[in-house]
Design goal:
Layout (H helix, E strand, L loop, with lengths): L19 H8 L2 H12 L6 E5 L5 H9 L4 E6 L2 H14 L3 E5 L12 E7 L7 H14 E12 L5 H14 L1 H8 L3 H7 L2 E12 L2 E10 L16
Parallel strand pairs: 1-2, 1-4, 2-3, 4-5
Antiparallel strand pairs: 5-7, 6-7
Helix pairs in contact: 6-7
The chain binds S-adenosylmethionine.
Length: about 230
């Protein structure tokens, strides 16, 4: 993978970004999983929604089309992928604010959003950035707001674990191994989210994609350090 710009691009290498939509549609049951994530998020009229690591914008455009009255924002670190997303949104007639930025320092006010969404994103981050990102997601949600995530989940059987090696070769072993060890729910709980659950698991050509849900409760979040000591 190429991290020369400080982040892992959509398909691991910048030159592959134009192929992202086709590859993901063919290999990850994209429509089914993104539809299930939006069903789970149960967005209501008037709500403010943020998609973190939005990539080519497929999820956030679908969210806007499904819920025309909602205010939708989307953030990604890669200007090239955001250009593709903005073009797709224009074609779809979707009104979306695309922001260039890092998930570890979200440029939004505390408590601004009712829903934070993220799909196929956390496995691009090393553990320290996963922690900072989860903290930031917690910060920008209002109390009672919800986080809904789709990403590579705890490994299934040996065959799906072996297939996942292809993803690890593209996106990196250090960032993906937390996912396949089933640590995302631990991560969300460690920054103060409540009612953290893995809600569904989908078998794909390259392994299991899980859906997660977590709620921002009333109590102050515990501070989480950058290391992963103490985690199972
Ligand atoms: C695999 S793509 C997922 C795109 C989209 N969410 C989807 O479901 O198709 C991961 C995206 O995360 C972005 N990304 C990686 N590291 C990031 C960071 N630290 N902050 C924001 N975006 C980042 C990449 O540029 C890429 O577009």
């Amino acid at each position: 993978m190429d991290r020369t710009k400080g982040f892992t691009p959509a398909l691991g290498f910048h030159a592959l970004t134009p192929l992202y939509d086709r590859v993901v549609a063919l290999t990850t049951r994209e429509r089914t999983i993104k539809r299930a994530l939006l069903d789970q998020a149960a967005i209501e009229p008037g709500q403010q929604v943020l998609d973190v690591g939005c990539g080519t914008g497929t999820l956030v455009i679908a969210a806007q089309r499904r819920h025309p009255g909602v205010q939708v924002s989307a953030l990604d670190a890669d200007p090239a992928v955001l250009a593709i997303a903005a073009r797709k949104a224009r074609h779809a007639g979707a009104d979306i604010a695309f922001d260039l930025g890092r998930s570890s320092a979200l440029p939004y006010a505390d408590g601004r959003f009712d829903r934070v969404l993220s799909s196929h994103f956390f496995h691009h981050l090393p553990w320290g950035d996963k922690l900072l990102t989860a903290q930031q997601m917690h910060r920008v949600l209002r109390t009672g707001g919800e986080l809904h995530v789709a990403d590579w989940g705890r490994a299934g059987g040996p065959a799906s674990r072996a297939a996942f090696l292809a993803v690890q070769l593209l996106d990196g072993f250090d960032t993906t191994s937390d996912n396949v060890a089933g640590l995302l729910p631990v991560l969300f709980g460690s920054v103060g989210f409540r009612q953290v659950e893995e809600t569904r698991r989908f078998a794909t050509a390259f392994g299991i994609i899980s859906l997660y849900r977590a709620v921002k409760g009333g109590a102050a979040p515990r501070r989480a350090g950058p290391a992963r000591q103490g985690l199972p």
